[in-house]
Design a protein that fits this description.
The chain is α/β, with parallel strands linked by helices. The protein contains 20 helices and ten strands. The protein folds into two domains: 222 residues, P-loop containing nucleotide triphosphate hydrolases (Rossmann fold, 3-Layer(aba) Sandwich); 232 residues, P-loop containing nucleotide triphosphate hydrolases (Rossmann fold), CATH 3.40.50.300. The chain has a five-stranded parallel sheet, with helices on both faces. It has a five-stranded parallel sheet with strand order 7-8-6-9-10, with helices on both faces.
Amino acid sequence: MLKDWTFKDGRSDGEDKRRLKALRQELAALQQPIKEAKLPVIVLVEGWGAAGKGSAIHSLIRELDPRFFKVLSVGMPTEEERRWPFLKRHFAAIPQEGKILFLDSGWLDETVRERLRRDLSDEEYDRRIESIRMFERQLTAGGYLLVKLFLHISQKTQQERIRRLEADKDTAWRVGENDRRQNKNYDKALEAFDEYLTATDEPWAPWKIVDGTDAVRSQLKAAQWLHERITTALRFRPQPVLPAYQWPLEPILPLAQVRLDKRLDDEQYQKELKHCRQQLERLHNELYRKKVPVVIAYEGWDAAGKGGNIKRLASALDPRGYEVLPIASPTPDEITRHYLWRFWTRLPKTGHIAIFDRSWYGRVMVERLEGFCSAAEWQRAYDEINEFEKELTDAGMVVLKFWVQIDKQTQLERFRERENTPEKQWKITAEDWRNREKWDAYEEAIDEMLEKTNTRNAPWYILESVDKRYARIKAMRTVIDRLREVL
């Protein structure tokens, strides 16, 4: 894409400036249609050091209403950010519906820098590209418009600009060591940029290479590209094609075949509980020392005993090193972003444990059955969830998923007990009774969910919870066994 590029000589004229001014006005006029269409827009401005990325963004936003856009300058990750998966900080930054995010550099710059410094092996680089392609595809499939610009300049132009910036004490700070290294090793950097651009150029998120030699002309080309992409997206949003995945799925029993007659008497339970707490306490200390992050997701029937199960598991952990995250209906901030956003932003850093009381699987259960998403969205979600969990496990996270299982009669008995016990009445709502009426539909959806997401790297564990004591000990033992295996 870059290797055969021919730079254009000459400077822009008055006509280019007039066209640029008019385009800025047209971009400003598009903000209201963007808001009405609930179109979230990400404008990724990448390119060579001193190519004019900052000036291009300043030109694009000049006439925009600042209430509906944000500019974010993305540097290399901090030590704190490196304790999370690569995509976390980029997913966390995505805008709400109807708003525009301008990124001054992003995941391209970070990846190419690490590639050139040899911080990424060939295998790690290929995996990084796979993550980026997945990220951009998930965003586009989720309704986002991703506009990608690369500002290209020659080695000579970059050298002249670096010298000019360094000569003025008020602009010298804008030149970093990476810019100098780029210019010195221009051919190697060119090859790395070209390889990246080629690998991530897709019909639903294409790259636009802009000649940055002349400032006005490059700003005009950037504005034209942004205007074209927005107006097209307002008429039609292309859907990316999912890869033909062959997930490493393990067989799992349908819920109707799960035996629920397993029991523990109180003496056994108390003995096991004490023993499991001691082991978990030791393992949590080792997790922290070795900086291993853990995600535990709980799903299950209403009144199955998730809360009590989580309480016993958490009782063995250092409270400074874990967090329990109850997931309810999405907030306004959450519902106007990609559905996985609220989970990416809650991931634990290395050495910590995040326990989710309900999780991203709501997409293929309650959202599917209550009509909160389209059929295409929940059907696509199986692959998206498997991708999400693979990102976590590839980054070194341990992912455990529990389904807390009871039968319909047990649920009815527990609902009635809650209704008849004053201190438990807050636990039962009209919605619980409505959901119960859809038991068969939910069971069908859950069986499909278990079948399609029981991957080798993030398997499901069924907790037979007619006897809550048995389910609690099984969960603790499962966590212990999994952590021992990892550590």
